[in-house]
Design brief:
Layout (H helix, E strand, L loop, with lengths): L2 H44 L8 H6 L7 H16 L28 H5 L14 H20 L3 H23 L4 H16 L7 H26 L6 H14 L4 H22 L12 H14 L1 H7 L7 H4 L1
Helix pairs in contact: 1-3, 1-5, 1-6, 5-6, 6-7, 6-11, 7-8, 7-9, 8-9, 9-11, 10-11
Bound molecules: zinc ion (ZN).
The site of zinc ion has 8 residues, from loops.
Function: Plays an essential role in type IV pili and type II pseudopili formation by proteolytically removing the leader sequence from substrate proteins and subsequently monomethylating the alpha-amino group of the newly exposed N-terminal phenylalanine.
Pfam family, one: A24_N_bact
InterPro entries: Peptidase_A24A_bac (IPR014032), Prepilin_IV_endopep_pep (IPR000045), Prepilin_pept_A24_N (IPR010627), Prepilin_peptidase/N-MTase (IPR050882)
């Protein structure tokens, strides 16, 4: 071990703690921003704006109009949405979800503030979820690992971005059953760019085919399952996420990713059952957290180690390695 290796890892770990703090914001706010946008579009589509007919006539025929009561209600809703205070990743400043107390900078130091405040809001003493410091710690550890393995290099930065995006998708899907396109596409493009730039050591062709077959594979499973049972077991976000993972790890890893994701699913399902999160609701966990978890397992173990674990998942391994 080079003496600088530990220093690199420590620096990256501190950066990861700070990024983890930001990821908590991303995980909480991205779905809310998405919902606000969807509602705005929905009511906007019911209204006639500047003489342009509403979508109603395009759907129900050219001689129809949005029923007046509905159009009035949509107008009211649009006004209410416009009147909302700005909401983005940057604004407003973080507040206690319980009493609205604005979090001061020294109450927002990753992990340390949580310990210092003993997991409670300084104003109203409502308990703060241990998930926040946990996300910070995990992100810090993942960043440290990337720097430990690749030094402070573009490759380490790229894999750290991979880790950060997967942490977000894991939690957002767990919370909301959605995998935001904005994060899926960032992951997909970064994987392809990383391969094209020679940073991920996956040949570009393998990255492209990984994305193609990742998407197509789950798409086929989805429609076969839907035809056979009439139910929808996955969503399009899952196809995109597996496509992104295929771009990062290469087409030959797709079977391994799916196998590891079912293992992650079994473990996660057990954990959530024990914690009691699944006990009351009949909401199934979606596939996204398992896929994101599998991506993180491949990062932590290292793609080569995964190949050694489950060599049978690489039937064409001899062709590509
Ligand atoms: Zn409070």
């Amino acid at each position: 071990m080079l003496p600088s290796q530990g220093v690199d890892a420590a620096l990256a770990g501190v950066l990861g703690l700070l990024v983890g703090s930001f990821l908590n914001v991303v995980v909480y706010r991205t779905p809310v921003m998405m919902y606000r946008q969807w509602l705005g579009e929905a009511v906007g589509n019911l209204m006639k704006v500047d003489g342009v007919p509403s979508l109603w006539s395009l759907v129900f025929g050219p001689k129809t109009n949005t029923p007046p009561a509905l159009e009035t209600a949509a107008g009211e809703a649009a006004k209410s949405i416009d009147a909302l205070p700005p909401f983005s990743l940057a604004r407003p400043a973080s507040r206690c979800g319980h009493c609205g107390h604005q979090i001061r900078w020294y109450e927002n130091v990753p992990v340390l503030s949580y310990l210092f405040l003993r997991g409670r809001c300084s104003a109203c003493k409502a308990s703060i979820s241990p998930r926040y410091p946990l996300v910070e710690l995990v992100t810090g550890a993942l960043f440290a690992l990337c720097a430990w393995r690749y030094g402070l290099s573009p490759t380490a930065a790229l894999w750290a971005a991979f880790a950060a995006l997967l942490v977000c998708q894991f939690l957002i899907d767990l919370d909301t059953q959605y995998l935001p396109d904005s994060l899926n596409y960032a992951l997909l493009w970064l994987g392809l760019i990383g391969a094209a730039a020679g940073l991920t050591r996956v040949p570009l062709a393998s990255a492209v085919w990984g994305a193609v077959f990742g998407y197509l594979g789950l798409w086929l499973v989805f429609h076969a399952y839907r035809l056979a049972t009439g139910k929808e077991g996955m969503g399009y976000g899952d196809f995109k996420l597996l496509a992104a993972l295929g771009a990062w790890l290469g087409a030959d890893y797709l079977i391994a990713i799916v196998l590891v994701s079912s293992l992650v699913g079994a473990i996660l399902g057990t954990v959530l059952l024990v914690v009691g999160k699944l006990a009351h609701k009949d909401v199934p966990i979606s596939f996204g957290p398992f896929l994101a978890g599998a991506g993180l397992v491949c990062l932590v173990a290292g793609p080569d180690t995964v190949r050694q674990w489950i060599p049978f998942a690489f039937p064409l391994g001899a062709l590509t390695s």
